[in-house]
Amino acid sequence: MSTIETGPSSGVSYKKADASYFDKRGLSKYAGVWSLWSLGVGAVISGHFSGWNLGFGTGGWGGMLVAGIIICVMYLGLTFSIAEMSPALPHTGAAYSFARTAMGPWGGFVTGLCENVEYVITPAVIVTFITAYVNAILGIDAAWSPLVWVVFYAIFLGLNIFGLEVSFKFTFFITVISLAVLVFFWISAIPQMDFGRWALNVDLGPDGTLIELPEGHGPWFPTGISGVLATLPFAVWLFLAIEQLPLAAEESVDPKKDMPKGIILGILTLMLSAFMIVLLNPSVPGVGTYHLTTALEPLLDGFRAIYGQGGVVVLGIVALTGLVASFHTIMFAQGRQVYSLSRAGYFPTFLSITHSKYKTPHVAMIAGAIVGLAVMLAIWFALGAEEGGSVIGSVLLNMAVFGAMFSYILQAISFIVLRKTMPGIERPFRSPFGIPGAVLTIVIAVVTLFYQVQDPNFTKGVLWVLIWFALAIGYFALVGRHRLILSPEEEFALSHKKG
Prior knowledge:
Layout: E1 4-7, E2 12-15, H1 19-23, H2 33-44, H3 56-88, H4 95-138, H5 145-161, H6 164-189, H7 195-199, E3 202-204, E4 210-212, H8 224-230, H9 232-235, H10 255-280, H11 288-292, H12 298-307, H13 312-343, H14 362-383, H15 385-421, H16 434-452, H17 456-478, E5 484-485, H18 488-495
Helix pairs in contact: 2-6, 2-10, 2-13, 3-8, 3-10, 3-15, 3-16, 4-5, 4-13, 4-14, 4-15, 4-17, 4-18, 5-13, 5-14, 6-10, 6-13, 12-13, 13-14, 14-15, 15-16, 15-17
């Protein structure tokens, strides 16, 4: 380290690192358009296998459809804003980089912190779903779940650490397989579907809860507009984590050309898949919307209804592909997100050291995995195996979505600020939705957050997130802001007079 530079307007100090610092933190370039597409789609695809369907319990079929459309509008505004910012600021920092340039070091750090919660916790959520499937398929006692968590983390840490090319090839392969499973389900379900009888088999009972209609043909919106709005948080699962794609900017061969294409292809793929699964899964005879209000394995239930119980093990393994795809790709994002904040000094700098041979941020990935596992184990042992196992998914899910919603709001604000204050920076791609699209993203994200707080499990998750925020902000205020490094993100921001 050499000369110290200070940003007086924001109370931070910089150290200019020498070449050896960045030599120890090098990344390799590999990703093209289809690698980026698979990274974005793979991160989300598990949400089309399970989780989204719980929204039927608040809004019925019509409520889920309209909530999905509203959330789709939010993600279109977000992804097209990101598609503009990412090639203009092609750094691994992604959300942190956008906010750092637009709002200074504190804005960048808080945005990065929101995203950090999402990417450290989301793999933990997904591995709980994976474990539930594995336990059911292999007949493993749920008491052994922590061991299964560790095994899956170890396997996919290895895939992500030992070679960027291997990791991207596996990501592409498992994403294509996951989509093939969904397409196979659509083809199987279309000849069977009976929309009116099964998808519309719920209505509002006298006590205000949904009841099953044995003959179907109920109302599209059994809970009215309030039910539509209450369903927004569940519809998020159909698109959550597509925004991670810009974290691969420095590992992309041509980010200025390929990043917008990868993001746009990804969101269009997910829009088609989301519509098909919301339409077809509840329309299969023997499944129906009422059953799916509480189902943990909606796609597997659909396959069972079509093909019977004979191939449950095979079908269970098939249904695992989407969960595996998302687990693998979000672990990739977790590593890059921690790496970028560490390389710039916001987090301790040792976390950004990359593997000497494979040039992957192995320390960041291992650290993120340890934190995710530690949170899971803390809940598991604090509440006991039985109770902890039943609430761990919902608590972690709310933690992840809470961080994600705030990250979306801050990224949309960053887009607006950059459009206003830096109109002259090179923008290889411009969002056709512009500032109105970013404003819609903010409005919908705020409404979604408001309805999330109605979930009693939400409070537990938020409490843990607030503790996480307090510890990280305390570290940055006391230590981190005096040790910032002139990383690519910081140099770009300073050269454009922000901070």
